[in-house]
Amino acid sequence: VQAQTKITIENTEDAPVISKHIYGHFSEHLGRSIYDGLYVGEDSPIPNTDGVRNDLIKALKDLQIPNLRWPGGCFADTYHWRDGIGPQEDRPTIVNQWWGDVTEDNSFGTHNFLNLCEVLGAEPYLAGNVGSGTVQEFSNWIQYVNHDAGSPMAKLRKENGKEESWDVKFWGVGNEPWGCGGNMDAEFYADIYKQYATFLTSWDKDAKLYRIASGPSGDDYHWMEVLMKEIPPELMEGVALHSYSVIDWNDKGPASDFTEDHYFATMTEALKMEEYITKHSAIMDKYDPQKKVGLIVDEWGGWYDVEEGTNPGFLYQQNTVRDAMIAGATLNIFNNHSERVYMANLAQAVNVLQAVALTQGEQMILTPTYHVMKMYTVHHEAQLLPVNFESPDYTYNGKSLPAVSISASKKDGKVAISLVNIDSKKENEVELDLGELDVEGMTATILTSDKLQDHNTFENAEKITPEEFKDYKLRRGKLQVTIPPFSVIVLESE
Ligand code: AHR
Q1: 348 CA: nearest ligand 1 atom
Q2: CA 396 to CA 453: how far, in whole Å?
Q3: Is 461 helix (H, G, I), strand (E, B) or coil?
Q4: Is 283 helix (H, G, I), strand (E, B) or coil?
Q5: Are strands 238-245 and 294-302 parallel, antiparallel or unpaired?
Q6: Region of residue 36 (left: phi > 0; alpha: psi -120 to 50; beta: else)
Q7: For 69-87, how does the pLDDT look when each residue is reduced to its tens digit (9 = 90+)?
Q8: Going by DSSP bridges, is the β-strand pair 404-411/383-385 parallel, antiparallel, or unpaired?
């Protein structure tokens, strides 16, 4: 048992509100994310609403999914939205050049996606094509989905059966222009961005677009500096950041049959998010001290080798307790940086990378990551309670990482605290000084398992599910919790 770690929680009215959009998701035309994932088609024997699986709709609604990013990723810069509207028989097919060279028949298009978002109660976040598209094409897409009447694209939408506009607010201007989005350098993209942003009209006098520039990957601080310096604030509402927890792009290691070496290396990568956000925020602060531009971490999560026997271009991987550790710790980082982080999108929602749900025929399982996301819904739109503490170490092979992470918030008079202990062996005891928060009783939930490699399977879908947690004491404003190894705990005041 480690020595007790003391944690103080500040009850300050000045702290920011944790945007629910931090808990966003991402579904790309990649592998079995859309086709044979979310979308099985209206004629499928699998119960569906307009072709989208009902079990997934329910799971995502239970998650209170705040937003969904689509159609990519790399796919976005090859996607021509007009291919995916109108009668099915008239839609062209294309080859999905980034993801397995499979035929994309465009049967899931703009209407399917935006109607799905309405069913889910989620805000759509559309990524427009910059790499192989035009300013006109992008601008027309906005007109098609947002303009009520009186324009060529509004007319076309109505002809396609949708009278009312959808009013989409979040628009990504390309994706990863430093790589699959066009291999540009930062200066070139900044110019291209300004050109696009100038013509991205909302087509709705009451609505303002939230335009998101494609930002850096990981520690590319030069990219952030150039964007913040070159793009005037009136042209950009958000700037993206991508960061995956990947050990080595050439040898990512197995998703479930991993060693402690793999685990420690993955967590080392995951926890770098703290440094990336801190340093990118410092650059943003220089140009935008009032923090008007949001940091949008629109791709994050663990990335491993694909499961044996699956298409390498489909990025299908299992999801274990390790992924729950990534999710718990990363979401704590986002919450604690909510003065700058406005949105984030886990990559990806279904059957791809760190998914919250996996499907196989009629079956669907929810992953440990799903459960963490669900436990953390208490933080959506809650006011952050900043925490101060020094984490004990998780030491492995002479290296160490902070073992414990925490974030806390309050909403409607209730306090919520999420605690993560990533240590593979040691429990950690913490004492939280809840000060004047006036907490008298709490309920608690834990997500853990016997082994880090444990995961839910189609044969044993409930192996890892949240359980009631009792190993804590609350006395006179002091909360003592013993956090078992590799576990996520969420406590809520009654
Ligand atoms: O999420 C998978 C891919 O990762 C996305 O398409 C791309 O943006 C990133 O490199």
Answers
A1: 1
A2: 17
A3: coil
A4: helix
A5: parallel
A6: left
A7: 999 999 999 999 999 999 9
A8: antiparallel
The stretches of 299-438 forming alpha helices (DSSP H) are 321-336, 368-375
Q: Whose CA is nearest to atom 5 of ligand 1?
A: 73
Which amino acid residue places its CA nearest to atom 6 of ligand 1?
73
- Outline which parts of the chain fall under CATH 3.20.20.80: 20-380
Which residues are part of the catalytic machinery? 176, 299
CATH 3.20.20.80 fits 20-380, yes or no: yes
The DSSP line for 169-191 is -EEEE-S-TTTTTT---HHHHHH
Q: What is the token pair recorded at 206?
A: 């009451």
Task: Return the ligand 1 atom nearest residue 181 CA.
Answer: 8
Cα separation, 109 vs 25, whole angstroms = 18
- Give pLDDT tens digits for 386-409: 999 999 999 999 999 999 999 999
238 bridge partner residues: 212, 294
Rounded to the nearest whole angstrom, what is the distance from the C-alpha of residue 45 to the centroid of ligand 1?
31
| Peptide bond before residue 301 is cis, with ω within 30 degrees of 0 | no
Instruction: Tell me how long the chain is.
Output: 494
Q: Does domain 5-10+386-493 have CATH number 2.60.40.1180?
A: yes
Could you give the ipTM of this predicted complex? 0.99
Question: Cis omega (within 30 of 0) on the bond before 124?
Answer: no
Q: Phi and psi for 324 in degrees, rounded to 5?
A: -65, -35
What stretch(es) of the chain map to CATH 2.60.40.1180?
5-10+386-493
Type of residue found at 233: P
